[in-house]
Task: inverse folding
């Protein structure tokens, strides 16, 4: 179970990271904050491209930054998203590609924290990505 202080820290970090979003095409700004097992928080925001498909989501920016820093174990992730320049007002769940990337490093019970501007909602990774493909399938 996550304590309230940890949840608030991660949501606040995700909201701050969202300010760094580069999203001139969608106008949808996303922020993510990933807590590593050693207590370090890694953040990310979505970064878009004029050719659209190279766009990278906030969650993957946070995860790849952390993995490149040598981290391999993670405790929780907070994600916030909404119209750029406006306050967050609805839950923003990770896209399918990000769910797959999270499953590479995070356990089925890994908590994904969503925030609608009022109430954090915690969803286990296995609920977001059931019956997933994993390294165990690569036999
Ligand atoms: N996006 C994220 O960064 N994370 C999500 O969970 C959903 C979508 C980004 C990608 C794109 O820059 C914009 O939001 C609209 O899809």
Result:
């Amino acid at each position: 179970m996550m304590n309230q202080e940890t949840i608030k820290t991660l949501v606040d970090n995700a909201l701050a990271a969202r300010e760094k979003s580069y999203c001139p095409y969608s106008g949808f700004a996303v922020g993510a904050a990933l807590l590593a097992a050693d207590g370090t928080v890694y953040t990310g925001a979505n970064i878009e491209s004029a050719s659209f498909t190279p766009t990278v989501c906030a969650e993957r920016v946070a995860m790849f930054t952390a993995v490149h820093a040598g981290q391999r174990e993670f405790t929780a992730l907070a994600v916030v998203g909404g119209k750029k320049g406006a306050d967050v007002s609805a839950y923003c769940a990770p896209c399918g590609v990000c769910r797959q990337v999270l499953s590479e490093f995070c356990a089925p019970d890994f908590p994904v924290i969503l925030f609608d501007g009022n109430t954090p909602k915690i969803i286990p990774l296995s609920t977001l990505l059931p019956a997933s493909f994993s390294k165990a399938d690569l036999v």
